[in-house]
Amino acid sequence: MKIIKVFNNNVALTKDLNSIEMVVMGKGLAFQKKVGDEIDEEKVQKMFVSPSENFAAKLSELLNEIPYEIMSLSKDIIELAEKELRTELNDSLYLSLSDHIHFAITRIKNDIPIKNALMWEVKKFYKAEYQVARLALGLIKERTGVELPEDEVASIALHIFNARQDHTGMEETVTMTNIVKDVTNIVKYHYGIDFNEESVNYSRFITHLRYFAYRMLRGEINDDQNDALYNQVKRQYGEAYKCTIKVADYLEKEYSMKMTKDELAYFMIHIHRVSIREKRMK
């Protein structure tokens, strides 16, 4: 594995025998190394394929500002997240998370706290990521001595959730979260109920809503118009139909998105399920 660019003493861009470019990280692995030198692979702590020249340039820029210790900390948090969530996360998280943690620590040291307006929504809708992010805050305190506020749990959870999607941007993730929040409130106030957030039906509803919002923002909504299913569900769940129309009106007004009959039918089913149990409990 030969070096084709040295970013700093701890990070380099390399090329393997198959001419695949990879970014490698490790304490001192590029110290006093130059282009063409071989990397001591025993020192490599993390390696990932460089997806583009843009990525390498962005990494180079960040490494001029972010200490290697923060990059290493991010690596450990990501490995913890992958273990807890039993999934692989997008390599771009190494950049975004390192940048975020470094900036958050700097703000706290300068007494400039920043509130996360979506903290309660993230806590409710992305529970698994939120729990991992809470562990991350403990690791950050242990390694840096800096105790970040709880708002940062939500921020880190959003970064983790974002990395679980297929190249979703953070702006898109925030928009998805707002859609989930707004639609949930429409259902809540239409029926005059409070949700049992531990129930299976609530979990199914939120999962459907999250992935609907994800597909909607990417223009991947199913174009099928299943009149038979739509008419049957509309007749059977009249109140859920009225609520679903409110949701459809909101989405069309705010996002210029017109729901298909298939989507309307599935929304009616999920809204009926999540509301009927709460009404019975009430």
From TrEMBL:
**Gene3D superfamilies, alphabetically?**
CAT RNA-binding domain, PRD domain
Q: What Pfam families does UniProt report for this protein, alphabetically?
A: CAT_RBD, PRD
Q: Does the keyword Membrane apply?
A: no
| SMART domains, A to Z | CAT_RBD (SM01061)
Going by the UniProt record, its keywords in alphabetical order are: Repeat
Give the UniProt record's GO annotations in the biological process aspect.
regulation of DNA-templated transcription
Any GO MF annotation of the entry: RNA binding
Q: Where is the PRD domain?
A: 65-170, 171-281
Domain of life (superkingdom): Bacteria
Family matches, as NCBIfam families: LicT (NF046042)
The name this protein goes by in its record: PRD domain-containing protein
